[in-house]
Predict the 3D structure of the following.
Amino acid sequence: MFDIGMTELLVIGIVALIVVGPKDLPGMFRTLGRFTGKVKGMAREFQKAMDDAADDAGVKDIGRDLKGMSNPKKYGLDKLNEAADSFEKWDPKKSAKAAKPRTPVDAEKRDAALQAQPEPKKDTGTAANTPLTSAKDDQA
């Protein structure tokens, strides 16, 4: 509270011994201790009164509501975190080995699909024959 170190307390004690005297020093420290105890009691009582006033005003209810609103489960973020965790643990090498092998029917379907696609035209033209330019632009 006051951030008084051991050396500062020693200096205060020596000054008090010189000013008050050795005869009255124990009585003074006893009185100081009682005063400190009363101040701490008053502070505790004040804190309790403030807490009671806050409870009456509904501050605890508001705090509980705010904590509930910021709960990730309310927004479904817990499921998103689970999905992210499972993605981080995913090993593509294991899933490639676990994939089912292709059957001859799958291979036949793939070959039929490849044959049904038209073959791409080979580009033998020049840049002037591209759709971005036309013959009119070349003449001008």
Observations:
- The two ends are 90 Å apart (CA to CA).
- The CA atoms of residues 94 and 100 lie 12 Å apart.
- The chain is about 70% helix and 0% strand.
- Residues 6-57 form one domain.
